[in-house]
Write a structure and sequence with these properties.
The complex is a heterodimer of chains A (113) and B (115).
Chain A (H helix, E strand, L loop, with lengths): L3 E4 L2 E4 L5 E7 L5 E7 L5 E8 L2 E5 L6 E7 L2 E6 L8 E8 L8 E2 L3 E5 L1
Parallel strand pairs in A: 2-11
Antiparallel strand pairs in A: 1-3, 3-8, 4-5, 4-9, 5-6, 7-8, 9-10, 9-11
Chain B lengths: L2 E3 L4 E5 L4 E3 L2 E3 L6 E7 L6 E7 L7 E2 L2 E6 L4 E6 L8 E8 L8 E2 L3 E6 L1
Parallel strand pairs in B: 2-12
Antiparallel strand pairs in B: 1-4, 3-9, 5-6, 5-10, 7-8, 8-9, 10-11, 10-12
The chains are: A mainly beta (113), B mainly beta (115).
Chain lengths: 113, 115
């Protein structure tokens, strides 16, 4: 039973295209996150949703738009992809109000050519 | 603001030896949690161990233990009897409670176990 699943695992696309990454969790958590891991392995938060409400929105280009149809799903849509968007994107979930670990998906490696 | 510092970019350790990965942190939150994650070459993020700021005892999980020194703001990970499968990137991270729930990561330490 996969706890946090994201698709696709790999995404190769050309500059200027629009792409989406989907994430789903079956842990019953109410908070979901998107993290970006750059080529130096640094992990930085992008967004967080709690019960479909945006609660964290770091400095991210507005080409990135998260969408949460319900508390178990958080998708990431990226418009007009640029070379610098190439990275690994991780979805994660946790329960709000608890200082507990985040559970991560396996990541989506995005390559923009 | 929360900050995590990992000063060891890479470490090489002989198999079966113990290894300590350093982590220092800074926060103004009265209540927070400290975490260690492992990222093997396959890329997934694996949660290893958690220490709450008010926990009196250091956390342990199998071969992993967290050496928590609150006054020094350090949360070092100790791996006993290292194995080849321990070769990976290790990230220290922290998060607070309401209003500061994001998990803030350090830059990581790449651990290589030598047979």
């Amino acid at each position: 039973d996969t706890a946090v699943s994201q698709t696709p695992k790999y995404l190769v696309t050309q500059m200027g295209n629009d792409k989406s990454i989907k994430c789903e969790q079956n842990l019953g958590h109410d908070t979901m996150y998107w993290y970006k891991q750059d080529s130096k392995k640094f992990l930085k938060i992008m967004f967080s949703y709690n019960n479909k409400e945006l609660i964290i929105n770091e400095t991210v280009p507005n080409r990135f738009s998260p969408k949460s149809p319900d508390k178990a799903h958080l998708n990431l849509h990226i418009n007009s992809l640029e070379l610098g968007d190439s990275a690994v994107y991780f979805c994660a979930s946790s329960q709000r109000g608890q200082i507990s670990p985040l559970h991560f998906g396996n990541g989506t490696r995005l390559t923009v050519t | 603001a929360q900050k995590i510092t990992q000063t060891q970019p890479g470490m090489f350790v002989q198999e079966k030896e113990a290894v300590t990965l350093d982590c220092t942190y800074d926060t103004s939150d009265p209540s927070y949690g400290l975490f260690w994650y492992k990222q093997p070459s396959s890329g997934e993020m694996i949660f290893l161990i958690y220490q709450g700021s008010y926990d009196q005892q250091n956390a342990t999980e199998g071969r992993y233990s967290l050496n928590f020194q609150k006054a020094r703001k350090s949360a070092n990970l100790v791996i006993s009897a290292s194995q080849l499968g321990d070769s990976a990137m290790y990230f220290c991270a922290m998060r607070g409670n309401f209003g500061n729930e994001k998990l803030t990561f350090g830059t990581g330490t790449r651990l290589t176990i030598i047979p």
